[in-house]
User: Which sequence fits this backbone?
């Protein structure tokens, strides 16, 4: 199967590095014109230049700070009013780590704005063009924690679950417009984010970070942490015409980590 996203326009959140960047690269290599979104303009410029050279297409970038919803709201509304898209990949940096007893109500509010409000607002803007064209793909990058909460991630566990239920509701309502909505439940992947979390966990447990990684790998039936490219292949498939009958799903990509059916 050869996946072609030629003539499709995609916007990928959190795409200066990590999983978001892997997704942006694979979408572009499959023919889509991609807008990369993040707060690090230097990395965005470098990534867009590389994509332009690889694909002979003109890709774009948008500098935003997901932690400042008012600023984000203004920037994304202005951008999408001039640059309608067909494929939206919702992804932001994760909130701070911590267990339930160590996070505040203010922390929950910040996480809600970061993980939920940004996703909802961006999606509702993008849907205008998708409905008009009777074609669209909305893909939310969430976490396996919506099925099995992860330790030290009370904020992420809570708010990402809200995103998945909201997305299922939206999928039921928007499907008649030939727009699909799906959630990807992300497992352990080799990214900067997982290195940061494991470093914090190692300090709390007073052990070496290598021990944390080893324990993490042993939890996965495949006995390894995923490569971001493997994640990007799944997103690219869901963004394609070949995935036109997949809608309203929560798809884990975790090497078998989840124990639930």
Assistant:
């Amino acid at each position: 199967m050869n996946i072609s996203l030629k003539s499709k326009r995609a916007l990928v959140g959190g795409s200066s590095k990590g999983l978001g960047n892997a997704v942006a690269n694979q979408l572009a290599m499959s023919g889509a014109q991609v807008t990369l979104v993040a707060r690090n303009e230097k990395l965005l410029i470098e990534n867009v230049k590389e994509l332009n050279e690889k694909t002979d297409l003109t890709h774009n970038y948008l500098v935003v700070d997901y932690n400042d919803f008012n600023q984000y709201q203004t920037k994304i509304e202005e951008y999408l009013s001039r640059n309608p898209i067909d494929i939206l990949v919702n992804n932001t940096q994760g909130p701070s780590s911590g267990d339930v007893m160590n996070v505040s109500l203010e922390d929950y509010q910040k996480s809600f704005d970061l993980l939920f409000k940004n996703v909802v607002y961006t999606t509702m803007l993008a849907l205008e063009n998708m409905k008009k064209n009777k074609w669209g793909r909305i893909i939310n990058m969430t976490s396996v924690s919506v099925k099995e909460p992860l330790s030290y991630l009370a904020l992420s566990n809570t708010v990402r679950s809200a995103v998945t239920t909201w997305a299922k509701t939206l999928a039921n309502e928007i499907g008649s417009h030939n727009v699909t909505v799906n959630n990807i439940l992300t497992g352990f992947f080799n990214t900067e984010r997982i290195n940061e979390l494991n470093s914090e966990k190692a300090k709390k447990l007073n052990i070496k970070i290598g021990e944390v990684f080893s324990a993490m790998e042993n939890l996965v039936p495949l006995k390894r942490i995923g490569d971001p490219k493997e994640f990007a292949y799944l997103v690219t498939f869901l963004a394609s015409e070949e995935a036109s009958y997949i809608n309203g799903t929560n798809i884990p990509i975790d090497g078998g980590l989840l124990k639930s059916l």
